[in-house]
Task: inverse folding
């Protein structure tokens, strides 16, 4: 019998307790030990809960109980989760978590503490909810060099974009629907501004390339400026707009990493990932493209990933899992302005013929895109690959000739 | 330093040697040990090979060398792979393999021998090539009950069906193209008759449900009878025909398991899995649907999965991985005739009005399907869910009224 504690009894925490309780027998069989919840830490009261005897408001009680070998930190946020996690690891307890914010900001430090104390710090649930992705990247793909990772990592924004694409719903209306359905928070900024996806691609990049990539190094752009016109142009171009977290190692050894909306072709495996689903493409030098798809959030999917990590800790109480990355510095990442990609641009002009001539001169490999019912003064096109600096310079020059760029969205190369 | 042997220097075996050699440093880092190939077993000569000093034709040399801790069996076929694997495990060597035929027919016995000898028998590469699937099912989904697994498990047949669907190519022409491209063997029967997919779903079912399901218990039907008319009707119905291996646990505890062509809706995540790619959907009670997608075959994808297993063995030379199922018996599986599903039927008739009336009477919930340019005497429809026995009985009754069923294809419910 192994005693565990669950810190946080919110959506994920109550799911963890539910999964551990309802699947008790099959989990015991798989872990080769019975797993018993000794404590649930939460500052709130849960009168009448069947787990009433397990609740505590006192973290020290868990910390000082040597019987507790594994702790699930499902509180979210950096504080006090960071302090609690650190102290658990230092006292020889393994910690599993769904807390992407903590892993993305303090992962290297916590992994190092886990290593020094010969315990595990596992976080399968921090990316992709119930989709197995951390373990496949670290284990199954161990014999590969990861060339690139690209994913739809945030279900809320994917729901909004799906409504814009399939139902021609405006961004604000789709956001409101997401909020009404409980897919988006009342303050939706972490989702729609791309920060949630940024933390997740930072975690995947750290894992794949072995150095901690801090989220503030990730160029992050959300979906708030996407319009139905852009959606229509994407469709005319042969694709859809998705919010993509992506990382690729460049020839100079630095990482090209960003979260931003991208036009992806309809034939891409990520184009068909709709609603609140997530899809993550991992391109290995030996495996080629492998795609993982499923629900990236939600109580039970996320909880089941947390519980899988608990089981793994119980099976490895003495033998550490090798999940580790070193600290990283800003020079791991290529400055965004130096990165290069093809781009879709929508602009307004007064003299269309003159604008067309300017565009052909300033951009590579221009392909015009036409949508039905476009205003007379609107013009849209796709370019070839250029650096962001080159794009910006060309856009400034266009502006001098009276052509004003209204939208610029990256075109994906996967 | 850990010494390993590679048995078989065919497509996969040479890939394993290539991956181990080219990624030597990064693999050593991940395995925390340098991995050195001591022997390559093959009865053929490879003059001028850079690995000339490692070749042996004598299995006993590998068996009797106590330095060899891990053996990759990539010979394929049951004999002599079965004998070699058994003797390696008995002598305390871990074995990893891509040999789906051996795992599907002897898995329970070999896993039991591995258990008794405290070594590992791993086979990530046996299903889905480079797609991580064995490990995610056994580990990440440990906190789930697996409700259902459904997959496109054979790249050759998927290539053929994709050509039939997208390019309107007849089966024979698509098969020839697959052979010309090296995707199909000269004797393609194991692929096109469904046996390869049958072995793979048998392995996944054994893993998910804990009892060995032998391939001869899997109702297996290939794609040789699929016509372009069926493809056209599937399109009119709103879907595509795919060869699907599927297993689901019924309420009576038995497994509904088969490999057969199915109509799947265009909105299904498996509908868009094309060409030689594989896609596997795992439906867990907590995670919901999780889909894994990638190249299901090929030298380097498969080799990288074998090497990932080698790394895992090296990391667990003392601690066994828990990958195991018990022996199984025929009564684990529901007889095919008792299983039930909706079905697409194409028939020929002389009196269309009379036929329509008969069909409405004999089948549930009939929806007619219409395709352009159908002959006057052709009729096609989709039914509601019925047992196979009920379908067969209705088809016999139809025949008595002069309506001859020419095609009958299962309709998927995922």
Result:
């Amino acid at each position: 019998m192994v005693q565990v504690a669950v810190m946080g009894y919110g959506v994920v925490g109550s799911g963890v307790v539910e999964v551990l309780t309802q699947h008790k027998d099959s989990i015991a069989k798989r872990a080769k030990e019975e797993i018993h919840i000794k404590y649930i830490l939460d500052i709130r009261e849960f009168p009448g809960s069947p787990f009433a005897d397990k609740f505590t408001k006192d973290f020290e009680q868990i910390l000082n109980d040597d019987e507790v070998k594994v702790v699930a930190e499902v509180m979210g946020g950096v504080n006090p989760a960071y302090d609690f996690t650190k102290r658990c690891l230092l006292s020889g307890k393994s910690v599993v978590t769904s807390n992407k914010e903590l892993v993305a900001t303090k992962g290297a430090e916590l992994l190092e503490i886990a290593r020094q104390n010969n315990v595990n710090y596992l976080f399968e649930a921090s990316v992709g909810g119930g989709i197995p992705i951390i373990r496949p990247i670290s284990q199954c793909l161990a014999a590969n060099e990861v060339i690139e990772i690209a994913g739809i990592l945030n279900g809320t924004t994917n729901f909004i974009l799906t409504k814009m694409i399939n139902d021609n719903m405006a961004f604000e209306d789709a956001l409101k629907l997401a909020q009404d359905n409980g897919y988006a928070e009342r303050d939706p900024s972490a989702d729609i501004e791309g920060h949630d996806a940024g933390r997740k691609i930072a975690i995947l990049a750290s894992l794949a390339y072995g150095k901690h990539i801090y989220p503030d190094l990730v160029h992050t752009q959300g979906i708030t400026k996407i319009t139905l016109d852009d959606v229509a142009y994407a469709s005319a171009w042969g694709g859809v707009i998705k919010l993509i977290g992506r990382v690729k190692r460049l020839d100079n050894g630095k990482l090209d990493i960003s979260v931003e909306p991208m036009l992806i072709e309809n034939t891409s495996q990520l184009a068909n990932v709709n609603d609140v689903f997530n899809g993550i493409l991992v391109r290995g030098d030996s495996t080629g493209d492998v795609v993982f798809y499923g629900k990236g959030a939600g109580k039970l999917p996320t909880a089941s990933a947390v519980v899988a990590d608990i089981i793994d800790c119980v099976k490895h109480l003495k033998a550490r899992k090798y999940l580790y990355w070193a600290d990283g510095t800003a020079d791991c990442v290529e400055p965004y302005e130096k990165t290069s990609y093809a781009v879709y641009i929508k602009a307004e002009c007064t003299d269309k013929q003159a604008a067309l001539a300017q565009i052909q001169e300033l951009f590579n490999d221009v392909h015009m895109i036409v949508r039905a019912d476009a205003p007379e003064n609107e013009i849209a096109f796709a370019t070839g690959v250029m650096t962001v600096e080159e794009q910006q310079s060309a856009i400034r020059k266009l502006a001098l000739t009276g052509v004003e760029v209204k939208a610029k969205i990256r075109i994906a190369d996967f």
